[in-house]
Amino acid sequence: MKGEYKGIIIGISIGVAIGAVLATWILLCMRFRRRHAKVQVSGNEQRGLSLPIRFNAADSSTMLSDSTFGHETPEIVKRSGFFSWFARSERNLLATASGIPRYPFRDLQKATHNFTTVLGQGAFGPVYKATMATGETVAVKVLAINSKQGEREFQTEVLLLGRLHHRNLVNLVGYCAEKGHRMLIYEFMSNGSLSTHLYDENVEPLNWERRVRIAQDVSRGIEYLHDGAVPSVLHRDIKSANILLDHSMRARVADFGLSKEENLDGNVSDIRGTYGYLDPEYISTKNFTKKSDVYSFGILLFELITGRNPQQGLIEYIDLAAISAVGKTGWEEIIDSRLIGKCNMEEAGAMAAAAYKCVHKSARKRPTMRDVSQAVSEIGRKKRTDKHGKFLSITVEGSSEVEQVEPSNVEFDNEGVTFDENSEAEQIDFPMDRFNDERSV
Questions:
Q1: 20 to 30 Å CA-CA from 5: which of 24, 30, 126, 425?
Q2: Model confidence over 47-102: pLDDT tens digits?
């Protein structure tokens, strides 16, 4: 009897001990979740202060960022114990999911000469020129203390560019996420942004052939996002400031901080983008679609044609010109004055007709990005034939490149874009890896 009584006491004691441990663990977990929820609520409240509508080079809102830049470590990273371990695990997951190299802060500090080699200032923060230990020249974009994009946009760009690969998209070569520092490392685009070449009086104006080639490059980059990426990606901030030019003046689409994967429910609680490029239908419905990117690209085409900033009444200027224009003709009055007598008016009319279809007020009546990309690709092409009338090559004015292609049957007329059933689109690699990160817009 005494042995049985003793066994019962021991069993009860062990049960009480286990219960106490479980209760303590549950209490700690609940405290962690409450503290984590407060951080998220605080961040969401800050985002709700104003709409992040950008101007061409910077944001107009005053939202605070989720992270800081400087030697101080943000509150989230300062916390010790389980939360710090969780934060480190999340950063490791970011590196694993993106497949993009992660660089130490000290290496970037040295490569930028302690962040003194400033290239420019964007919505994300300052951009520095850096020379890595390998001798490679790169551009380092640093998240500023008062950045409008914040931690979520930083992660979006890293994860998206980790799976997007196309010759007309900017190449992300690395990132830094250390002690509160958030940096994106891109290949260096020596000729800067398209907006600089269009609006900086100290830069030689782009000739017509260059503008045509840039339009073709950008259209192919966006076409890849819409039809080549799996799942499809909506850029959501197509503008001249986000088009970068390499050493040979080839254009690449940059800045994916506002980008997101296409989904069935595109409705959002606020409007994001850049004033002058925003799709009117998106503003009224808060539903961003592929056709919203098409609208922004149409505005970009008109920028190339007119040399006029979209934030200075460009769309009104276009609507007035469209009254007397019919299809590809009648657009002469909007041509950039620096191109008068120096461009092919037939080609300019064809580009204007394509652009005007892109900016139709009804998204349903706009062409797809693939349609407009193929139409723009036809502009400026010169074809050679052999004695049998077979096409041998296509060259573009102002370019040393020669592409071996078959004749195309693409036509962009006043009624829209039509294609012959036998015409072939450019071959594009389709990455099969998916990015399922949950993001609020």
A1: 24
A2: 333 334 444 443 332 222 222 233 333 333 333 343 344 344 445 555 555 678 99
Is 8 inside any structural domain? no
d(CA 186, CA 242): 13
Q: Which domain-ending residue is among 156, 187, 218?
A: 187
Per DSSP, 402 falls in state E
Per-residue model confidence as pLDDT tens digits over 361-419: 999 999 999 999 999 999 977 543 344 544 444 444 444 344 444 433 444 443 344 43
Exposed/middle/buried for 284, CB within 10 Å: 0-12, 13-18, 19+? exposed
Q: Note if 413 is an active site residue.
A: no
C-alpha angle with apex 218: 190 to 267, nearest 5 degrees? 120
Q: What is the pTM of this model?
A: 0.68
Q: Are residues 182 and 200 in the same domain?
A: no
Whether residue 31 lies inside any domain: the answer is: no
- Give the phi and the psi of residue 174 in degrees, each rounded to 5: 175, 175
In a domain, 430, yes or no: no
Judging by DSSP bridges, how do beta strands 416-419 and 410-413 pair with one another?
A: antiparallel
Instruction: Tell me how far CA of residue 56 lies from CA of 5, 64, 169, in angstroms.
Output: 81, 20, 19
Is residue 306 within 8 A of residue 316, CB to CB? The reply is no
- Return the DSSP state at 70: S
Residue 215 CA to residue 251 CA, distance in Å, equals 8
| Per-residue pLDDT at 218 exceeds 70 | yes
Report the CATH number that the domain containing residue 81 is assigned in CATH. Answer: 3.30.200.20
Pairing of strands 181-187, 172-178: antiparallel
Q: What residues contact residue 328 under an 8 Å CB cut-off, 6+ apart? A: 346, 349, 350, 352, 353, 412, 414
Q: Are residues 245 and 342 in the same domain?
A: yes
Contacts of 1 (CB under 8 A, 6+ apart): none
Mean pLDDT rounded to a whole number for the chain: 76
Is residue 238 over pLDDT 80? yes
Residue 115, phi-psi category: left (phi > 0), alpha (psi -120 to 50), beta (remainder): left
Q: Tell me which residue range forms the domain holding 291.
A: 194-419
CATH number at residue 378: 1.10.510.10
389 in the same domain as 253: yes
Do both 229 and 247 map to the same domain? yes
**CB of 372 closer than 8 Å to CB of 354:** yes
